[in-house]
Description:
The protein has 17 helices and no strands. With 438 residues, it is mostly helical. The longest helix has 31 residues, at 236-266. It is globular. The two termini are 24 Å apart.
Amino acid sequence: MKSHALPARELPSGTAAAGPRIYPWVVFALTFALLLSDYMSRQVLNAVFPFLKAEWALSDSQLASLTSVVAMMVGLLTFPLSVLADRWGRVRSLVLMATIWSLATVLCAIAADYGQLLGARFLVGVGEAAYGSVGIAVVLSVFAPHVRATFGGAFMAGGSFGSTIGVALGGFIAVHFGWRWALAFMAVVGLVLVVLFRMVVTQRRLDQHRFEDEAAVEPGAAGGYRAPLSSLFSNASVLCAYVGSGLQMFVAAVLLAWTPSYLNRYHAMSPDAAGFVSAILVLLIGAGMIVCGVITDRVSRRRPERKWTTSIAYGAAAAVLLIIGFQLPEGVPQLVVIGCGAFFSAGASGPATAMVANLTHASVRATGFGSLTLANSLLGLAAGPFVVGLLADRLGLLGALQLAPLAYLGAIAALLIGKRRYPDARRRLAALDRSPSA
């Protein structure tokens, strides 16, 4: 429920400022747009690999390092930078992050050789490291708890959409104007969005629209209770949310990385045709994140524990569809079944975000999302493609892809345990809020 309008410092916990609810949507739009810019700047380089290889005579390992250095920095810095954002201020942190990755993309565009480009990509990774975790914390702070899975899923889907836009648009610009202009365009988009975000999103206005426990503490403010970082790892339920989310991302990452090669080898598709079909698969994964988040919020509005149930259902559906799909003979029916499996493959992303939000104190919530991002990166985005690559060397790519969906068994087991421990975890969080130091 909304309260009567009060100064931000007088808002009682559990309320949001009265007035038009347009501003939260503006916050979501600008934060989401910056997320698109994040992934556009990250993935555009994949579209210009042929140009770099031809101009600088780079090896495949050098090209791969230009991508992996970004992922490495994101994995290493997500957690510590999320901690800093919770203390220094989330809005200021987002502006600084986006400025860093946009200026670093400018440096990529003017790099004179491989070493300079690698250094610039290192800075891109530094800027992007904690944007997802801090950005989702800002977004969820101005929306009611019963829609957290919807907005969590929609925000996470921005990575898929941004990657698709970055590769497609970057390739078009590179072909017609040169690879440097493709990078420069992404940088300009990011800088323009930074200016808009800085003009519109302020901590004071966020305070006036905060919901629920978000109103209890302002990150970076003097005084007020701040939960210890140990609270992010001290109950089994939130740990299970991290693990369950990371393992379901394992399979989604495998599909993103290996589908083009699978289509080329087993469906005899040309690289451009395989890329087109793979782009459709990426869009299905992103659409599934959004739709599954909406469904979860609808069925769990009065029963929050159902977020765990829907996550388990999405994982089970994806596992069954993908296991069947990769057993079918090559053809259109097989691709349809795999596409349906891809739709559900990351469906638990939104619910997992909502779970972490419900199980962490507002003062360390961005750090909690950083922990979730770290689990998604280590257990999913990094481990999935690598493990399948190792298996493919021994069993063939098809054999490896047939085994990959078994990772959902671990995800489902973790989510079942998390659901069982959820009531106790909520009681412990409530006790933390009522502690004398709070």
